Amino acid sequence: MMGRGTKVVKVGNVEIGGENPVRVQSMTKTPTVDVKSTLRQIRMLAKKGCELVRLGIPDKDSALALGKIKKKSPIPIIADIHFDYRLALIALEQGVDKLRLNPGNIKNPKHISLIAREAKARGVPIRVGSNAGSLSREILEKYGGVTPEALVESALNEIKLLEENDFTDIVVSVKASSVPLTIQAYRLLSSQVKYPLHIGITEAGILVPGSVRSAIGIGILLYEGIGDTIRVSLSASPDKEVEVAYYILESLELRRRGIKVISCPMCARSHFPVEKVAKEIEKKFKDFPLNVTIAVMGCEVNGPGEAKWADIGIAGSNNRVIIFRYGKIVKETTWEKAVLELEKELEKWKEVNSN
Ligand code: SF4
Question: How many domains does the chain have?
C-alpha cells in the first residue's frame, strides 16, 4: 500500500492527513436545534469510534445551537453550511472545529474573505469539494457532463477561492454516487493537490448495497494510498456508518477496533449454528478492549486447522464444542456453555496480553 503524505490539518484535537491514521467520521441525523437528541447521537457515535462528526446547519437556530453542542461533545464537530455566509460566521463564533462549505456558493468575495479570516484566526479548517449533483452549468458544458475532470476542476476552483484569501487549512472531497467515477476523480485530484482528502461514496444507499458500494470505492482508494478521512454515507442509523467504516479499515489492515470475528461459510460438515454463534459473539464482546481475532467454525475436522492463525476459536461437531487457541484444542464443552467458556478464555487472553 502506498503512503499518503498529505498536509496535516488539525480539527480540534484530531489531526487529519500526513501519516495520521485514516479518520472515521459520520453525520448526525437529528435536527441540530434539538440539542439533546443531537448530543445523544454524537455520544453514541463517539462510543462506536467515530472521531469527527458533522452537523447540518440549515438555519440560524441550528447555528446558534452549536455552542451548547460543542461544549458537551466528546469529539470535534463540523458545521455543514450551504449558501449563507452568516451561518458560517455564527458557527465559528459558537466554537465549531471545522466548516464544510463551498466558497463558490457564498459568491460575494467580501463574504468569502470574511469567513476565511475568521476561520484562520480560530485555527478552524474548511472542507471544500465538488459533488456530481451540483456542478455548475459552465463546467458541465465544458466537459460535456459529469466527468472526473469536471469534478476535479470544480474542487480546484473552490480551493483557489480560499487560497486567494491566504487560507490553506483545507480538506477536499470530490464525491459522486458512481463508484468508478468517484475512484477516477479522487485519483486525479490526489495527483494535483497535497491537501488531505475526505473520501466516500455519496448517496450510497441502504445498509447492505450501500456498504458494499462504499467498501469497494473507499477500499480501492485507500489501498492506493488515497484518502485521509472517510465517511460511509448510508440511509441507516449513523452508528452503522461508523461500524462499516471500521470494517473497511480493518479489511485493509489499516486500523483495528476491538474484536474481529471471522467465521466459516458452513457446509455439509457443519452441525453447528455458525451464523447464530458468530452474531452472538459479535454482540456480546463488541466492547472488548483489546484487538483479538475470534474464529467461529462449523466443524472440528477442518475448523481449528483453517483458523489456526486466529487468537481464539470455537468449533462445533455433532454433540460437543471445542475451544482452540492458534489451532490447538484447549477445552471441550457443550453447545449451551460454549459462549460462556469462550468468555473465560477471552478473560485469560486479556490477562496475558494486557501486560
Ligand atoms: S470449517 Fe468445517 S463446516 Fe466450516 S466450511 Fe470448513 S469444512 Fe465446512
Answer: 2
